[in-house]
UniProtKB/TrEMBL annotation, chain A:
GO terms for molecular function: transmembrane transporter activity. It is found in: Cell membrane. The chain crosses the membrane at residues 39-57, 64-84, 90-108, 120-139, 145-161, 191-213, 273-290. It comes from Gluconacetobacter azotocaptans. This is ABC transporter permease.
Automatic annotation (TrEMBL), chain B:
The lineage of its organism: Bacteria, Pseudomonadati, Pseudomonadota, Alphaproteobacteria, Acetobacterales. This is ABC transporter permease. It is found in: Cell membrane. It comes from Gluconacetobacter azotocaptans. It is a multi-pass membrane protein. Its main location: membrane. GO terms for cellular component: plasma membrane.
Length: 312, 356
């Protein structure tokens, strides 16, 4: 039982890390008022670039860096269209998702099925890793785990809610015209946060192939990008909540893993549906059950609306 | 600061069309450039593409075969677009329709004249059931339909492969991940093109008439353009949203039925072949008009058919997805650029003088 719990939590931390990282990136983009629907494609791009990089230079950190760079580049393409050209965000997002998925399949064609030559190793933290269950599951993980669950959300939370820059950033997402009038550079704020968020999506894809599923195949991301998008709504556009909901969905994924490993009398395909069905339930049930939730968890007011200075 | 461009609040359809044609050409040129840079001969590729699409009887048959599901999924996304909703789940509803049709085809035996309509009805009901939860969540709780419809695509794909390798697996020939061949099929019309093709065209024509010429269609459009005004005018907006989304699910499912009963003749994993996602592209190209879905689906079928040529050139089938994404991307930018027109500086200065 202890072994089962430990294994499940360890899987949840890994699987959840991928979602948490991508969701955190999307929180940044959506807080400045831009919905980036391209996350799935950007993650796919990050995943394949990470594999290709570690095939050349066997350092997982370089792989993660390259994945982040790939996501950033893809994000700049998206932000060019959606922020600078002010094109329809749903269209650009879907276009980037398609391009990312197609491009990653094309450049990853020769790497399909090849196991990742380098992955992140486990580092046991002295004392803490000796704790039962949480010790091996949380304190004997790869190092990026701490980056994903602690450093990045803490940094994002602090910047967003405890600095003037964060106030400006949220103003851009709530009321870009007012922010513009107050002298905030709306376009550049949007461009850079969307790009940064896309970089995190790329990193999430790289993290997937460098730790949890260390092999490239087409369709590897399997909807994780879209789940991350849903988590942002579920988390009410808050960094720590997004990270924690990533972990929660990691647990659901782990449940289907454990079910398959222990030969539960449920078909694996049905167990694999759990994360998707769970996500749907988690974004529908709260608004149905608790109506006040809608106001507490409301999206930034200008989310999805391109900002034109000319229109008054 | 002298502004040399001016943003127009609304744009004429002709202007948008011109920009879109330019966008599609730009996307195809960029693709050719990429292929040339990766060491492939564009002239040879172009010749192969023409021969495998419009240049031969085989090619034309393939185009019609690709067009059939695209017309229906494109119409499915167009319909929801009329009321301001994105149905990104046409892929899942396609699977649901395929499952429903295959279930009847495999287990109900009888004359084709009886079984085929039954397959269609069952498939369509499955498609409507598949979009039901996102529909109710959107209409009554305001839950974002993009994510809910999309996530169900993965569930539908898993369910399809589960059925194809599990309970419905063909145990006689033991084919990999597929059910047995269905005993009934939609009759062929012209080569490999079956009656599903003209039927799909007829469905879209009927849909265009309903949306453009009836009171119901008008109410749908008003509900999409201005929900507040629609409610004030006494239009039951929620009921219209529910009806339109269910109709959309039915159309996408119909594509699945035609694919199972007319083209593939069995249920297999991945049978939807991204047709649901390409339906989004068709709908975007069609710009909300059902009749425009036909040329848009033709263009999309042409791109997909060309993709087969690319596969003979050591590129994966997914390269087409990237090309489609590029087309979509260019169109998104083109649509926005169509809003701008150059303004001569002299006129600008007089305007400035007149402005309060």
């Amino acid at each position: 039982m202890i072994a089962l719990l430990t294994g499940m939590l360890a899987t949840a931390v890994l699987a959840g890390g991928v979602l948490a990282l991508a969701a955190l990136g999307e929180v940044l983009a959506e807080r400045v008022g831009v919905t980036n629907l391209g996350v799935e494609g950007l993650m796919s791009l990050g995943a394949v670039v990470a594999i290709i990089t570690v095939a050349a230079t066997p350092s997982p950190w370089l792989g993660l860096l390259a994945a982040t760079a790939a996501g950033t580049a893809g994000g700049m393409v998206f932000a060019f269209a959606a922020v600078i050209m002010r094109a329809n965000q749903v269209l650009c997002g879907l276009a980037v998702a398609f391009m990312g998925l197609g491009l990653s399949a094309t450049i990853g064609h020769d790497y399909a099925g090849m196991p990742s030559p380098a992955t992140f190793g486990h580092v046991a933290i002295p004392v803490l890793s000796a704790l039962p269950v949480v010790g091996p599951a949380i304190f004997a993980q790869n190092l990026p785990v701490y980056l994903i669950y602690l450093v990045l959300p803490a940094a994002a939370h602090w910047v967003m809610f405890h600095t003037r820059h964060g106030l400006n950033m949220r103003a851009v997402g709530e009321n870009p015209a007012a922010a513009d009038a107050a002298g905030i550079a709306v376009t550049s704020m949007r461009f850079w946060y969307v790009t940064l968020g896309a970089g995190l999506a790329g990193a999430a894809g790289g993290y997937l192939t460098l730790t949890y599923v260390p092999v490239w195949s087409e369709g590897l991301i399997a909807g994780r990008g879209w789940i991350a998008l849903a988590l942002v709504i579920f988390a009410g556009y808050r960094p720590f909540a997004a990270t924690l909901s990533g972990l929660l969905f990691g647990l659901i994924t782990a449940l289907s893993f454990v079910g398959q490993a222990r030969n539960w009398p449920i078909a694996p395909a049905i167990l694999n549906m759990l994360p998707y069905l769970g996500t749907i339930a988690f974004i529908i049930v709260p608004v149905v059950v608790w109506h006040r939730m809608r106001r507490v968890m409301a999206a930034p007011a200008a989310l999805g609306v391109p900002y034109h200075r000319d229109i008054r | 600061m002298a502004r040399i461009v001016q943003r127009l609040p609304s744009v004429s359809p002709g202007r948008v069309l011109a920009w879109r044609v330019g966008a599609v050409i730009a996307a195809l040129l960029l693709t050719t450039l990429f292929l040339a840079l990766s060491g492939r001969d564009p002239a040879l590729l172009a010749e192969l593409v023409v021969r495998s699409t419009v240049g031969s009887r085989f090619g034309l048959e393939d185009l019609a075969l690709f067009m059939t599901p695209l017309v229906l999924t494109g119409a499915a996304v167009t319909v929801t677009g009329r009321i301001g909703i994105w149905n990104i789940g046409a892929e899942g509803q396609f699977y649901a329709g395929a499952i429903g049709a295959a279930g009847i085809g495999l287990f109900v035996h009888g004359p084709a004249l009886l079984v085929l309509p039954l397959m269609t009805v069952c498939g369509v009901l499955c498609g409507m059931a598949w979009i039901l939860v996102p529909t109710l969540a959107r209409a009554y709780a305001g839950v974002n339909e993009i994510i809910t419809t999309l996530l169900l695509n993965f569930v539908a794909a898993l369910l399809t492969s589960y059925l194809a390798v599990g309970p419905w697996h063909d145990r006689v020939t033991g084919a990999l991940a597929s059910t047995a061949r269905l005993p009934v099929a939609i009759p062929d019309l012209w080569g490999v093109v079956h009656w599903g093709f003209p039927l799909a065209l007829a469905v879209v024509a009927a849909l265009a008439a309903t949306l453009d010429r009836t009171r119901w269609g008008y109410e749908v459009r008003i509900s999409g353009a201005n929900p507040e005004a629609a409610r004030y005018a006494g239009i039951p907006v929620r009921a219209r949203i529910v009806a339109v989304m269910l109709l959309s699910g039915a159309l996408a499912a119909l594509a699945g039925v035609s694919e199972v009963a007319g083209t593939v003749h069995r249920l297999q994993g991945g049978i939807a072949n991204n047709f649901g996602y390409f339906g989004i592209v068709v709908a975007v190209l069609a710009r909300g008009s059902c009749l425009n879905v036909l040329p848009a689906a033709l263009l999309m079928a042409f791109i997909l058919d060309s993709g087969i040529v690319l596969q003979t050139q050591q590129l994966t089938a997914s390269t087409v997805l990237a090309i489609t994404g590029l087309v979509l991307f260019m169109i998104a930018i083109g649509d926005e650029l169509a809003h701008y027109r150059p303004v001569s500086t002299s006129r600008l200065s007089t305007n400035k003088g007149a402005a309060p």
